[in-house]
Each structure stands twice: as C-alpha cells, then as structure tokens.
Write a structure and sequence with these properties.
339 residues, mainly alpha
Amino acid sequence: MVAALGLVIGLPVFFSVGLVLLFPIVTGLAATSGRPLLTLALPLVAGLSASHGLVPPHPGPLAAIERLGADTGRTIVFAILCAIPATILGGPIALRLLRPGTPAAPAASMAERKSEAIRQPRFVTSAVTILLPVLLMLSATVADAGLGTESAARRWIAFLGSPSVAMLIATLVAVRVFGTSCGFPLTTILRFVEESLMPIASVLLIVGAGGGFGRVLEQAGVGQAIAAAASGLHVPTLVAAWILAGLLRVAVGSATVAATTAASLMAPIAATDPTTSRDLLVVAIGAGSIVASHVNDGGFWLVKEFLGLDVAQTLRSWTVIETIISVTGLCAALILNAL
C-alpha cells in the first residue's frame, strides 16, 4: 500500500516533494505499527521514483515526448502500465532481498513537522486534485481518438489537456483545494508559492542545459553516428535507448539530463524505425534515466539523509531499487511493444 501511495502521489509532484510530503506519514505508520522504518520507507521511494522517471508530466519524460514527437496521453498510459510492475518488483518484493542494515535516526525535523491547516481536505477531493493533470492529458488523447478533427469540443479538450495548460489548471485548483479551502490566508499561500520557485528553478535550468547539450551533440552528427552504430549492432531500438540513457545517467547523475539528451540523440533513429512505438521509446528512455543511482545523484543523498543510512547502506538499498525499477520498466516496454 505504501508503494502504491508513492506511485500515485508521485504522478504530479517531483520526487523530492513527494518524499517531503509522505515521509512524516511513513514515520507515523512505523511508530504505530511497530514495523522497522525501512520496510515502509523503501517501498515508498520505489513508487515515487517509478513515477518520476517513467510517467509524464515529469520533466524528463515530458522533454523526451517533445523531442521524439510522441503522444502525451498514450505515453502516460504505457508509462503507468510499466511503472506498476516496476514499483512492485522494486518495492515490496525487492525489500525481502535487501539487507541495507540498521539505519541511524531519520530526518526527525521533517517527521515532526505539523500541518498549519485549519481544515483538512476530503480524501476524494485530494485524490482528484492530485490526479487532475494526468486526467486532463489523458482526456486529450481520448478526444483525439473518439472525436472528429473539426470538432470544437476536441480542440478545447486538446487545449486543456496540453501539458502546460493542464499543469496550470491543476496548480490553480490545488491553491483553492489545499489553500483557501483549508483555511490558509492569502499571505501564507503566497509564501508557499514563493518557496516552490527555488526547486523548480534548478529543474528548468537542468532541462534547458540538457536540451542545449543534446542539440549540440545532434548538430555535431552524434545522433547519426549512434544511429549507424545501433543499426550495425542489431540492437532493438528500445534497448539502445535504455542503454544510452543509462550511460548518461551514470555519467551525469541527473535523470532529467539523461532523458533529455538521450531523446535528442535517439530522434534520428526513431524517425527511421517504424516498428518501434515512440511512446514506448519515451518509457524506455525514462527507465534508463533512473538506473544505478549513486553519489553524483541528488536523490541518492536525499534518500540517505531522510532514511538515516550511510553511503554503503544507501548503495545496497536505494541504488539496487533504482536498478530493478529501471530494468523492469524496460522489460515491460519491450513486452508492450511486441504486443
């Protein structure tokens, strides 16, 4: 259940935000149930990581969709289908095989943080608000398949389901549902918005730099060279994309940079391979972009500090979980592409 919670909550929020929001809940569950913290926290981070790496509207998959010309709605469906088994294998099942050791004290300050809300939102309202951007983007795909190209309703649904508009609508709804409806004054909501700008600024910088780096490599002919090498090795396109994204991930640490750059380099190959779904190619790239997280990845240190692990324990747990999620995501994408 904790892994499923991480997967669902992780759909519209960044990995770090989801961990900050849910870690106090996991700490409370561990305290009341008497279970070790790691048995709940590791499945949680597995679900959050699967959502962050595989499913739009996270920046890596979203940038890959733009560069490969994939369909956002179909990619979301395929990504969720791949993320479910990846979360199960990387979370509850892998937990039985891992022996990370006894952690030190976790991030107590986050666990003890109390809500300032006067009223709590209802569960159904919270769930709909969290899933709203995903639902809007999926509705655009459904309308594209079921309504005529000249339909005004189709154009409106496509507009509302575009990633930027969907995220803007979800943000405004969240301000109402989780802000004013919960009794927060406008000054507090403004402070929340201002505090949110700092983490997103670094993400925008990473996406822009990754896109620029990929463009430089593309103009230098790296994409064509990789396309020629891949065709000579007779490696399936999905596997080639996963390997390329994985190599970039290990080298630079950032999943967003790895996905963005790999998508730019794979675009010439995707254009010449009609047998491979571009939507599943995005999923394969996303899976490769989260493999083998280690010390050059910010998420590695975030998990280490929150769970109270040392470096060796984090490598034995978090790094292994990330790799299992990555490999499972690729295998699921290969199966869907074959079907």
